[in-house]
Amino acid sequence: MKVSVQSTSGRPLGDYQLPASATLSSLQPLFHAAHPLYYPDRQRFYPSPAAPSATRPPALNPDSPLSDADVLLFKDLGPQILWKTVFLLEYLGPLLLYPLFYNQPRWIYGDAIHAAVTPWAREVQFSALMAWTFHYAKRELETLFVHRFSHATMPLSNLFKNSIYYWGFAAYVAYFVNHPLYTPPKEDLVYTGMCLFYFMEVGNLSAHWTLRMLRPPGTKVRRIPRGGLFELVSCPNYTYEILSWLGFNMMTKTIAGLLFMCAGAFQMLVWAGSKHRRYKKEFDGKDGRALYPPSRKILIPFLY
Amino acid sequence: MTAGWSIVLLRLLRALISSEPVYPAVRLPLALSQTGAILEVVHALSGLVRASAATTLLQVSSRLMLVWGVLDLVPEVRLAPTVTSMVLAWSLTEIPRYLYFSVAAATTQIPPGLTWLRYSTFIPLYPLGAGSEAATLYAALPYIEAARPLSVYMPNRVNFAFDYYYMCVLVLVNYLPGLPYMFAHMLRQRKKYVVSPAEKLVKAQ
Q: ipTM value of the model?
């Protein structure tokens, strides 16, 4: 059969001969051969809309069947980079920058500030350094050994966006927590926060482990996650993560940390919402497909 | 809003003719009209209008910064000549823009002249306005450095510090990439609403 491809603005991008009952995955390497710039991860195809004014239908996935005389619309996703690379580099900032503020206060705050940091303040700063480092070391290790990504790549521009976010916030939070004029909170708040932080980190790891076990190695299979907090919310890994930053903020009490937590929570709320809707759409209980548990919430058990 | 900015423009011109100081004459309508623009960000965020929330926020926040964070806060800078050119550029941009919105809300037939005006006046006025904004901010820097208004210093119980002077420097530096970015954005808009429809008309004939 023959399939032709156009750009989204209607420019012809060639006709392709495919075997009968082929899927999009067989077109992708042929398209790459004809257009060497656009490797498969950089390609996105849409079926052409019914009418010129109609909104563009959702993108095809590699398993979408094609039929003879189909006209597909091609969109360039831009240069791609591995998810793994982005994750490893974006978390490297917090891991390297933060200790700099703790270990070399003279470089950051200058020699002029001769405040005597009390032993208790130094102790809280040390606990914060441990917690922060634990969190990002855990993320690096999870990236290497736990996560199974559903997409291999993302646009290169995300690397810069994400790195600015993580490196920037790491410096911003570290600046205030390790400041020579830092005022630590009371003991009971620090210890409560610390307990909350580490318990939630363990919870976060357990949720990541559950997600890993859902997906057999080397596949992009999606299943309904079960067990633990997954019975109550779709994205307990985010619930744990937000609570873990709440613990960090109880320990350290800075506005900067609070802003970081709110920015992260907002982003996770958006991601969790779309993941929840994807689950509901994919597991609709029709035609032998599993039904997504209807009472399951998005992020906050029983509420949201 | 059209009326608000028209009052700003009229008072500006009257003050110029009678060679009185400009800022006291325009202060109230300017503050009201520009602060009202916060609604535009709300509209963009809520999806009520097609404008992008990010560019609207950038545009409105930089103007608010000038109105409240510089002119209101630093009396010494109010007599600078760049304040006159800035307010002139703002009002000349806003009058056809809000007129365009009002007409668009009332009818589906927008006079092509108005569309042209809305998407063309920025070509001279945007550089004039943004240039004057940056110059006014620059002129205010020494006063802000001396008085340090709105600033918070360590130590305090919430471990927070904020230096308004450095924020102003940061904002000023951001005008450098910001101006070409916004200008390119406006050129794309112009191409979409003014140039392309004209081309289509030519092709159709």
A: 0.72
The reply to whether residue A179 touches residue B158, judged by beta carbons under 8 angstroms, is no
Chain A nearest-CA residue for B154: A181
Least confident of A41-50, A77-86, B62-71: A41-50
Report yes or no on B203 lying in a domain. no
Question: Does the pLDDT of residue A131 top 60, yes or no?
Answer: yes
The pLDDT assigned to B204 comes to 53
- Pairwise CA distance, residues A44 & A153, whole Å: 13
Domain, as residue range, for B13: 2-198
The chain B residues in contact with chain A (CB within 8 A) are: 154-161
CATH code of the region A2-77:
3.10.20.90
CA pair distance B148, B162, nearest whole angstrom: 10
Residues of A within 8 A of B152 (CB-CB) are none
DSSP 3-state of A233: strand
pLDDT bin (cut points 50, 70, 90) of residue B3 is confident
Contact B160 A176 (CB under 8 A): yes
Cβ-defined contact of A253 to B161 (cutoff 8 Å): no
- Residue A232 makes CB contacts below 8 A (sequence gap 6+) with A296, A297, A301, A302
